[in-house]
Amino acid sequence: MSVRVVTLVENTAGFPLVLAEWGQSVYLEADGRKILFDTGLGNALLHNAKVLGVEMGKLDYLILSHGHVDHTGGLKDALEAQEKKPLPIVAHPDIWGKKYIRLGGDRFIGIPFARDYLESLGGEFRLTKEPFWVSENVLVSGEIPLESGFEKVDDNMLIKENGRFSKDPLLDDFSIFVKTPKGLVVILGCGHRGIVNILRHGLNLTGLDRVRAVIGGTHLFMADKERLEKTIEALKGMNLGEIGVSHCTGMQASLELARVFKERFFFNNAGTSREYD
Question: How far is residue 44 from each of residues 18, 70, 102, 178, measured CA to CA in Å?
Fold first, then answer.
């Protein structure tokens, strides 16, 4: 089985003619399935897909990592581009929560479209809290347990219910796990529940003992020195093949990961393509 991973949307552009945009979207081919993981903020998805030679109109699944606008803003464009409908959309029920970030005020960052509107465009939501097998070797994580002891969801992530704000536990933080003979390939959305928690969960679910590659956002840009050090120590003990970070990792954390993992590290910009067989 071959696995192809193409990053369509990311904060930085690493390929000619590709647009940079805050957010993330990753295209995955595995087990004969064509999967889109998130859609970015909504301006770069279709443009970058065309530049990178990705056939956006022939998806088998769309997976949502969580219900923030920088991962769901391109939903309308992705659905309108589909040649075959309906398109299954796998996500956690909490994606529809009223999500905010406390950043110079309380700002709404939830999905910018109504569910019935997206369904009218051909979206078929398959909402679950449990792991979801897309194919024999491709698994959507389900809810990620907080077990590392040092990883937590940032305090400025909020949910508004009955007119009142509370901390959003981001139970809808999903990742994708792909089983290969040489280990687990992991694609992160934002990693709100912690990259170490996510990787351990993936290994437990699949029964594998090695992470061949981890790609995506790690939400370390707000991590303090202690958390970053503990994260790196845990990753060093996980027989990690390569790590390609992006989006919400932050430059400081990215540089430290690059220093530690050396040739096993890469910046996962928009336009980055990796293949695993």
Answer: 8, 11, 26, 26
Rounded to whole angstroms, how far apart are CA atoms 176 and 138?
7
Digit-coded pLDDT (tens) for 205-251: 999 999 999 999 999 999 999 999 999 999 999 989 999 999 999 99
**Where exactly are the structural domains of the chain?**
3-267
Which of the four CATH numbers 3.65.10.10, 3.60.15.10, 3.40.50.10490, 3.40.50.720 does domain 3-267 have?
Answer: 3.60.15.10
Beta strand pairing call for 183-188 and 211-217: parallel
> What does the alpha-carbon distance between residue 141 and residue 65 come to, in Å, rounded to a whole number?
9
Residues 6+ apart with CB under 8 A from 87: 59, 61, 62, 79, 122, 123, 124
- Region for 223 from its dihedrals, namely left if φ exceeds 0, alpha if ψ lies in -120 to 50, beta otherwise: beta
Nearest-angstrom CA–CA distance, 8 and 27: 7
Which residue, chain included where needed, has tokens 């949910």?
159
For 99-140, the pLDDT digits (tens) are 999 999 999 999 999 999 999 999 999 999 999 999 999 999
Instruction: Round to whole Å and give the CA distance between 92 and 255.
Output: 32
SS3 at position 274:
strand
Helix (H) or strand (E) holding 265: strand 265-267
Q: Which of 206, 131, 209 is nearest to 175 (CA)?
A: 131
Task: State the pTM of this model.
Answer: 0.97
Q: What are the residue ranges of helices labelled H in the chain? A: 45-51, 69-72, 75-80, 115-120, 195-206, 225-236, 251-261
Q: Is 245:11 a contact under the CB 8 Å cutoff?
A: no
Beta strand segments in 104-240, E = 106-108, 123-127, 132-133, 138-140, 157-161, 164-167, 176-180, 183-188, 211-217
